Amino acid sequence: MKITFKLNSERVAIDVEPYWTLQRALHDRLEMAGVKEGCGSGECGACGVIMNGSIVPSCLILAPDAEGAEITTVEGLKRNGKLDRVQEAFVRHGAVQCGYCTPGFILSAKILLDNNPSPTDEEIRQSIEGNLCRCTGYRKIFEAIKSLCKS
Amino acid sequence: MRMFEYLEPLNLKETLEILSSEKGTETRILAGGTDLIVRLKRNQWKPKRVVNIKRLPELKGVSLTDTTLSIGALVTLSDVMRSKEIGEDFPVLARTCALMASPQIRNIATFGGNICNSSPAADLAPPLLCLDAEIVAVSRRGERTIPISSFFTGPGKNALNPDELLREIRIPRRYAFYSSTFQKLEGRKALDISIVAVAISAKREGYKLSDVRIGLGAVAPTPVRTASAEKILNGKAATKELIAEAATDAYRDATPIDDVRSTALYRKEMVRILVRRGLEEIAGL
User: Fold this and answer.
1) Are B147 and B118 in contact (CB under 8 A)?
2) Would you tell me how many other CB atoms lie within 10 Å of the CB of residue B14?
3) Which of A121, B38, B122, B140 is the most exposed place for a label (fewest CB within 10 A)?
């Protein structure tokens, strides 16, 4: 079946099977390499994408549900070759090791800061409680996000 | 995932028509998908048809009358946390949702889905049991109301017939001024299924508690109320000693099992502790 939606501000139309997940459609058909399958059951956050303004686990959404949606992946954050400030903060703070969890974390942080520019420490932690990292121990991820908060 | 016939009805009437021929488990309903898609991926369920009900306008929204708060089946856990009506009448539901899963899952998981999945550990069940919620089930044959106390019939099983859909959950607003709490014991601070969950609602006048309702999750084949513990406190000044007595009775009412998350013995002890904590919180001790 054909689905049409907005991906990173561009209109796209692709053929999908109804039993494909959105993660598979974005990663395999649309080459959004940042939308990764980690656990496949929605619990690690690696497949996180912003869909109609909220962060969602694309590995638990069927591709047909993207019809008419506005979806942002990490690929959509760069503007004119320049990194988004969330991406830039992760690089600056050494918050990336293997990088597999990173796109999911960056999108969670972006949603947090877009809606709440001055979150408390607890609100930062709650915003990333659905993202797992096996490398960094989370501290530098937390510091990168905190560095972007308005005091 | 295996192939299935995929249907996207646009309204309730169309959906009930599709379900009217359903006798078993050949058709599965897709709402948030946070339970269904996981099962499909693991081939635990192999439905012939998947019916996506996300577009049904009749299942959306929160509404109020003088007597009743109604929560549509498709209201997400995040919606519950943002809802002004729910926050004013039943903040314990927003609190419960905040302790469930993760932001990503809460953005798509639905209120109706958690109830219909009917896990013994469904976190929404204990507070809804305390609040005498009613399930409104619809089919082509008509509409009926199922009290939540009879809704859960076993692990993963409920009173809905194969041709029925949960349309909304109704909560009597007379419980809106009760003091309520939700206590969840889990391995981590997020994402985990409850080891033990306790919800308590009571009318509080000073130190006196009456009409105490205690709902337990993850410690029986279904979510349950604990009648004996509730009786101990009714109409009396809630002292720490009386609360400890009620908590011990709740411990006796729990019939948990050993599983991957915990042991029966530990769960029983944790029922006592969470009920005590919840009662002390409500009584202001």
Assistant:
1) no
2) 14
3) A121
